[in-house]
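To close the chapter, one final illustration. This time we ask the reader to focus less on the individual chains and more on the assembly as a whole: which components sit near each other, and how the overall shape emerges from the parts.
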Amino acid sequence: MTWDIERIKAEVTADAASAGSLDALEAVRLKYLGKKGLVPEMYAGLGSASAEEKRAIGKGANDIKVLTETLVVERKAVLALSVKRVDAFDVSIPGVCRGVGTKHLIDQTIDEICDVFECMGFVIQRGPEIESEFYNFSALNIPLDHPSRDSFDTFYLDAKDPDAIGRHLLLRSHTSPGQVRVMQKHNPPMAVIIPGKVYRPDAVDASHSFMFHQIEGLLVNKNVTFADLKGLLTAFCKKYFGYDVKMRFRPHFFPFTEPSAEVDIQSNIFKGRAGKWLEILGCGMVHPKVFEAAGYQGQEHSGFAFGMGVERIAMLKHGIGDIRTFVENDVRFLKQF
Amino acid sequence: MKLSLNWLKQYVDYNLSSDELSFRLTMAGLEVEHVEAIGNDTVLEIEVTPNRPDCLSMLGLAREVSAILDQELKVPVVSDQEDQGSVEIEIESAADCRRYIGIRIDGVSIKAFPADKSDWLKAIGNNTILNIVDVTNFVLFEFGQPLHAFDYDKLEGGKIIVRRAKKGETLVTLDNVERKLDESILVIADARKPVAIAGIMGGRDTSVTTSTKRILLEAAVFDLGVVRRASRKLGLTSDSCYRFERGIAWRTAEAASNRAADLVLELAGGTIAARRDVVMQEPASQRVEVVVSSDDIQKLLGAPLDLVRAEKILKRLGCIVAAADQRLSVIPPHFRNDIRIKEDVIEEVARIVGYDNLPMSLPQVPAVNITVDLEKETFNRRLTDVYVGLGFNQVVTYALVGSAVLAKTNYAGPVIKLQNAMSAEQEMMRPTALPNMLIVAAANMNRGQRDLKLFEIGKRYIPGGERWTLSILVSGRRGADWRLGKRTAMDFFDLKGAIEEAFLSLRVQGCFFASAEDSAFELGQSASIAIKGSPAGKAGRVAEDVLLKFDIKKTPVYFAEIDIEVAADMVTPRAKFAAIEEFPAMVRDISLAVKDVSFEAIRSLCRDNGQGLLKRVDFVELYCGDKVEQGYKGYVLSLTYQSFERTLTDDEVNGLHESITAKLIKSLGVKQR
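The assembled structure is written out below.
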């Protein structure tokens, strides 16, 4: 028996192309490759053929087999596009979740701010919350009769200060004592950032708390200038509050810096506060008296310091109206961030 | 400080809108917080920083405006007064009152106060009362020096004594309130009784009235600390008190006193019958010459400033300035005690120029910074990240706690107390975060959030120190996904596992839990935690009686507290690479019924008898049902045998496993199930 291989190839191609469903396609496959299909039939007739015919038919049968298989796979892919399989995934069903946790917004804010300064070469340091009057006030050039020393602005402990007769220990009312501690411990140059809790006897309401968080920064080196302070804080504000942030340096007073400034900003990330100047940090050049208290001699070093309130920044950035939200720790609040 | 712009015009010419003026003042360090139109006047509310008591006056603010705009300051001309006549003034202590100027004016009459001055006073919130009182108010705001006028005929003995009050003395002040006085309060008294609280408020019965004929005008310099403490004690403040607390300039007292006398004579008539200026202690002059070079300016600001302009600004601010050879010699005015060093002088110039007009640069951040132990510095942060990954929500709670709420947790250890707590709820530093964590848990449960995995990284405070502490609380069901199986209740081992996994991740080795009792925990359901033998914390099921006090009913809560500083000290260095085992491991399970034997004891006995071939002993299942003999618990363990040198044979492993099993039965009294 002879076979018109080319004609069969054309038929296979036409059959495959016209199969309109997976069933029809399966019928095409069976017509050629099934037990009773054409290809087995071709092989079956080989016994009575001559050696030359055997070779031609064998090759032809194999070609048709390969062609059919190829066309079926190809056609299947085309048909599959329009067919819904029962074992198809509904990929919109949620994945298996073990319930990842959340970092508190206060910690997130501290980390974000510290990250910016760490990228600029600052290292993180921490200081104690229970402080002495020396570190919290005297070393920072806050004189004995300054109103902020009054017990109404600082929590004092029952415990006496072992290093100062008759004086009591206190809870630091700002993170600035960390400046002096770092300077006492290390020789310049240095660039440090000091986050932590601070305490002030304020009655708790929507915008006040007796415990909140601050971040302090200090850079001491040779030839540090006010221009450097402006530059560094501008770089920080642009990175943290957006490159379109508007800033102004407003003269202010802190006993431990001279000159001193507060930085006000306008940022698009503060929803609903567009066009309003918002005080965001305090800063200044380290006062010579602070260097003196830290034991730095001579005029050879200069530096700047800055500080900011973490809750205030987080509240502005995320539109949180009540500072108590942070310590209520409603899990639904925690899971938002 | 409120600033009336109509009033301001008396002292300085300016041609700016109120918005522009507000902006310029703000950017010079006198922040305008509020602008309000009152009649034909505009009033600016200005925040004056504590270093600038001189700006708590019209003249002080006018001086700032004159410097900002480079305009002449017009200071009112004041007559000089010499001591004359007789008025008896006695000061008990120079520390309390350094100066007291009394001027007696006889023959005054009550007339109308001029309309323009009345309007200015009203604009800044002060109603006019009687011309003499109005004069003292007017000069208070004009010069920043508090003044008081007594009805001289009502002062017994015609005498003024500045002294501490005596216990039991009282005074009805101008606001008609009877004030109880004591030795901490400085008063002005006549021969018999207190007539004013020094620096704060005068007494009602000696005040000027429509029938007053003779007055005594007081201008004094009281100690700011004494005034402030009296004000706090009495809960009474005033415009006078506000200024005394921030400091009064020595020479301003005299000028203001003379100005007031001038105005009384002008507006109420009369003649000066007597004057005395009692100087107890003139302050050592703090006015020193400060020399500033252009080099100093460059060094501090990182920018040059025109010395000619600097000189002009400083003179406008009241300094005496001499310029020579790229330097300025500056003597600050008597009312500026805040200008002492060259940084102060440079700041004065810089703030008037405007900080925003100065250049900026980036600092050289030191390449060699201070050295830190990165592993320790980042420990808390990495610990936080691990707990977030383990599905915990971080909380931040108050570091202060009340003794009542602390007692609810059966805590009986030492505490650090505050001296000036605001309330009993915040009277001490927390020695444990347990009460605050339970408050958070209860609040969440009340709002329907019952499956809780919370942690806090904060401090505990115990006499002798503050310690970084990890606090963990779990309650409710574990899991959140149906595919992970039925949501069963969390227990002690969720807590323990969270600690073990975190420590594994941070390479804290040698953490050991031992049964231990704690009054905060249920009996037999708590442990102490040690890390390499150092006590590091505790964990357990919070006692039911404790939970009830926090309104948590029928819900088990588990809590652990770990000293992070101990843990951070126990971090092992990163391990050296160890070859992966080449030969297959063989696992044999063993099912035991145990009584009064810990898993730890079983495991260590297995290890001791493993002949170096027992790799691991894992706990597979705990069974407490009725299929195990009464009083016993069912433990299923899995023992893994492996050699580094060869493939173990079945016989070998079975033999070893049987011998271990026999030892367990013999030595620990366990039964095979």
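Chain B touches chain A through 88 residues (CB under 8 Å). The longest strand of chain B covers residues 452-462. With these observations in hand, you are ready for the problems at the end of the chapter.
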